[in-house]
Design goal:
Layout lengths: L1 H8 L1 H16 L6 H22 L3 H19 L4 H20 L8 H22 L2 H19 L4 H20 L9 H27 L2
Helix pairs in contact: 2-3, 2-9, 3-4, 3-9, 4-5, 4-9, 5-7, 6-7, 6-8, 7-8, 8-9
Length: 213
């Protein structure tokens, strides 16, 4: 019954999961670079459609923009690391706008402390593992996104944890320039941690918007 409900009421979410799973298993196949690039971008593009289909408000449209820019980043990064990073930078700024519009009332001191830790540690660790100041600059937006997600009214153990998984995924990417260069671990974990984070973010935000509509 749960699977049937997913197909009938959340087809875009199911399509996103299917596309992301398929990409993970065929990314090393020789099926053509263009098709792989399009398949990689399809996951977050389907999440953008999921947001629009499940809620018609401005926050849902902003979430759709976040996911559409991430889809663009997923595709562009296969062609040029700089342009892909620029698209994700824009996605993080859009996400920060969404979370700042939905700040949690009276957060606990521990929640504030973790948000500050995310804001500071994300660019610091990114710089330490990559040795790149430009990556650290990008990671300021990444850390800001994660900190704002944690301080938002959206469920922390979905949206907040989703943002943290996004950070971990990017740390794995950056570590390929340094301590994990030549390791197979990043290739195994980058995509699952990244897309699991995006799924948690999208579903957590929409769940809250629908509950408070």
């Amino acid at each position: 019954m749960a699977r049937q409900a997913l197909v009938e009421h959340r087809p875009w979410l199911l399509a996103a999961i299917a596309a992301a799973t398929l990409y993970y298993f065929v990314s090393d196949w020789q099926i053509g670079g263009l098709w792989l690039i399009l398949l990689k971008g399809a996951g977050c593009l389907f999440l953008a459609n999921y947001a629009l289909a499940r809620h018609g408000g401005g926050d849902a449209r902003l979430l759709a923009l976040v996911m559409a820019l991430a889809a663009l980043g997923d595709m562009l990064i296969e062609l040029d690391f700089l342009w892909g990073g620029a698209a994700f930078f824009a996605s993080h700024l859009a996400a920060m706008s969404l979370y700042l519009r939905n700040l949690r009332a009276d957060p606990a001191p521990s929640q504030k402390g973790l948000a500050v830790a995310l804001l500071v540690a994300t660019p610091l660790v990114s710089w330490l593992v990559s040795g790149s100041s430009s990556i650290a600059l990008y990671a300021l937006a990444l850390g800001g996104m994660a900190a704002c997600a944690w301080m938002s009214r959206f469920p922390r153990y979905r949206v907040g944890m989703g943002a943290i998984l996004f950070v971990v995924s990017d740390w794995l990417i950056f570590a390929r320039f340094g301590p994990l260069a030549g390791s197979a671990l990043p290739d195994m974990l980058i995509w699952p941690t990244y897309f699991a984070g995006q799924i948690l973010i999208a579903t957590g935000v929409i769940q809250t918007l629908r509950a408070t509509r």
